[in-house]
Amino acid sequence: MASDAGTAGELLVARDIGKRFGGIAALSDVSFSIRRGEIYGLIGPNGAGKTSLFNVLTGIYTKDSGTFVFDGAPLDDLKPDEVAERGIARTFQNIRLFANLSALENVMVGRHVRTHATVIGAIFRGRRTRDEERAIRRRSIELLDYVGVRRRANDLAKHLAYGDQRRLEIARALATDPRLLALDEPAAGMNATETAGLRSLLESIRRDGTTILLIEHDMKLVMSVCDRVLVLDYGKKLAEGPAAEVQKDERVIAAYLGGDVSLNLKGT
Asked: What CA–CA distances, in Å, run from 65 to 25, 27, 28, 114, 253?
């Protein structure tokens, strides 16, 4: 199993993932793979199971069946912090920043998953601990600059504009040095200018070596930035393939027209 993922150039392989909530099947036998270095889209009507899939992948929910293989090794039954340590970071559909911490402090919190300081070191603040804290601060400032909000580094997160808060969440996720960055509707609430900036940021992240898994309702963004797309409907895999092909699939069009016509699947 592990060697298959590695030799095929696949970073993440999902096989027959299932999740139920009582009598409702949120996910049913969902299988897919994400190649290293691509932007992989996850779309579907409201209630299709997209966020449930993110939650089982990142350890928030425990899946009922199936398996994940990440970078050639099983990724099953891990807690969220253990998933982050393995190299998967995520953002949330609803922004989850520390509202009363500065933008810089929010990113530094994310960076601490890669630190080595012990409790004793934190108490006595030896040279190694101080050096590490300076490195965390330096890297966090670099990431704020990378996502375009360095000018707001010392402002409380709750005082940032909505688009800047979205970018700050991405910076905090990147602070964990992920190999896979999972973004849950990062363009939600953004205007056209902010969305164009987000597209450029996603392309930069991919170009700099991080694979992206993207849930997004903005179909123009999805179809312009994603290499391949997985479509879920009622928790089941409906279609998968290159973005240009998926948007022409009659089953996909029917699923969207039966759900939320405002998605404008062909509005590219």
From this structure: 12, 10, 9, 31, 29
**Confidence band (pLDDT; 50, 70, 90) for 46?**
confident
Q: Sorting pLDDT into bands at 50, 70 and 90, what band is 126?
A: low
Out of 133, 158, 176, a domain closes at 176
Count Cβ atoms within 10 A of the Cβ of residue 212 and give its class: 0-12 exposed, 13-18 middle, 19 or more buried. buried
Please give the model's pTM, rounded to 2 decimal places: 0.85
CATH of the domain at 249: 3.40.50.300
Least confident of 120-134, 185-199, 204-218: 120-134
A 10 A CB-CB count for 153 gives 17
Name the domain count of the chain. 2
Report the 10 Å Cβ neighbour count for 264.
13
Distance CA 154, CA 38 (A): 33
